[in-house]
Amino acid sequence: MKVSFETEGSCAKRIDLEIEGGKIVTCEFIGGTPGNPEVIAALAEGMEVTEAIKCLRNFACNGDASCPGRLALALEEALGK
């Protein structure tokens, strides 16, 4: 399943995901600063979606928003939570 998630409050404007069999196949942050989002995406690829949500949920960067936190929200949305 391919999902695009429009973000709010973080540097990245969108997160594009592909999820298969409960795992993150691809993850790409669109817009924003390079560096940390690329690392986060590389680490997330291959992870179980539920485990990634637990690991990424509570990070702050720009106020209460962050790329890891927005990825967790995107994954929750993809799961229908």
If you had to describe this structure to a student in words, what would you say it looks like?
The structure is a single chain. By secondary structure, this protein is of the alpha+beta class. It has a single domain, classed as Enolase-like, domain 1, CATH 3.30.390. Helices cover 37% and strands 25% of the residues. It has a three-stranded antiparallel sheet. The longest helix is centred in the C-terminal third of the chain and has 13 residues. The radius of gyration is 11 Å and the shape is globular. The model has no long low-confidence stretch (mean pLDDT 91).
Summary of the model, kept short:
The chain has helices at residues 36-44, 49-56, 67-79; strands spanning 2-6, 14-20, 23-30. It is α+β, with helices and mostly antiparallel strands and 81 residues long.
| DSSP strand count | 3
CATH architecture: 2-Layer Sandwich
Number of helices: 3
* Helix content range: 25-40%
The main sheet comes to: 3 strands, antiparallel
Order of helices and strands: EEEHHH
Give the strand line-up of the largest sheet: 1-2-3
Uncertain segments: none
Shape: globular
Mean pLDDT: 91
